[in-house]
Design goal:
Elements: E1 7-12, H1 18-30, E2 34-39, H2 49-56, H3 72-79, E3 82-88, H4 90-97, H5 104-110, E4 116-120, H6 124-128, H7 130-141, E5 145-146, E6 150-153, E7 159-163, H8 167-179, E8 190-196, E9 200-201, E10 207-208, H9 215-226, E11 230-236, E12 247-251, H10 254-265, E13 270-273, E14 280-282, E15 303-305, H11 309-315, E16 322-329, H12 333-347, E17 351-356, E18 367-374, E19 379-386, H13 387-400
The structure holds cytidine-5'-triphosphate (CTP).
Cytidine-5'-triphosphate binds next to helix 11 and strand 16.
Amino acid sequence: MSHTPLRIVVGITGGIAAYKAVSVVREFVKDGHHVDVIATEAALQFVGRPTLEAISRNPVHVGLYDDVAQVRHVALGQQADVIVIAPATANTLAQFATGQAPDLLGNTVLARRGPLVVAPAMHTEMWDNPATQANIDTLLSRGVIVVGPGSGPLTGADVGVGRMSEPEEIVSAVYASVTTPVVQDLVGRKILITGGGTREPLDPVRYIGNRSSGKQAIALAQQALLRGAQVTLIAAHLEVPVPSGVSLVNVSTAAQMREAVLAHISTSDVVIMAAAISDYRVDHTSESKIKKSEHQGQLNLSLVENPDILKEISTHKFPEQVIVGFAAETTSGEELTSIAREKLQRKGCDYLVVNQVGWEQGFGTERNAVSVLASNGDILESATGTKLSVAGTILDCITKQPFQNA
Ligand code: CTP
């Protein structure tokens, strides 16, 4: 529970789970917070205004044109320490993702200054729909906190993903969103992060590349900055903007990545190798565009291995330096862990962050699921969540072990 009285806006939209929102409001009031309930017209089909007014001990706001003199459509959002939407329907999420404000709730969300927490509730098919998933990704990329949905019985006979999280979970997420302290445990530390995916040219037009977006590396850079570190990012073809405050070095090929890493290695306390670095390059890059007419139906490329940067820097590291490798694998479970342990030994790094990737998983998404292994192969932590929260877990693992030169 949070001890500072907060101004909390609870937005309730039109889904059967609206009845559970009453318990969310009740918890906040019980903890001494000021709660403004904004209900959509649809929400009032599921839960009555008198119930919400009695529980919140405040008038319930519904219409965009009520009390216009008080400029309620912006005031509620501006004044709120946090806004939570429970339940958030698929339609509501779509409106938020596209910045629409057809009603008082939409206006309030647009005008907010504090965090936004949403607790989606809908049928499994609606949740799985690519449109809803794209909207969730958009909201996550803007820092919106998404709680659930959980799995279980839905309205009618259905069972599956889409059930609104339990009120206690929603209440905890709201408190965490306003009270999570940022520990400044990396002040004075220099952190070198590699991110994105290298490209190995075949000719002036084409290259061999990979699907890494660089989002996990950017999240690591953001977290490290928040925790007081000086961050240098060696970036290969990022698909996302770099936060201000990061010292950026752009590279393209694995050879350029190696050169840039070696140029910064002696001044780095921590090196995090999150980039997807091409293991191979063509042994001869064509100076002109490769022509189809010169290759009767088949083109054979001869590839040579690139230097293993992680292995090289781990072999030559200073005793006090911390080197973190990444492993993206397409296997799962025990096999994934055993591949990770073998890779950890082969590379000789201090930590290895391992995650499962696939056609639909890992690359370019807003979320990640990783395990962090220590140099002896022990799993220190496993984390699932936004790439920003996963980055927090990775840095926690590194900082738990005190720096030897601290
Ligand atoms: N890496 C590196 N230099 C390379 C290739 C990879 O430093 N030439 C780093 C990556 O940045 C990552 C780690 O090594 O931190 C693991 O990369 P991965 O491609 O999974 O390792 P490989 O040794 O190439 O093993 P695999 O056969 O599974 O590709």
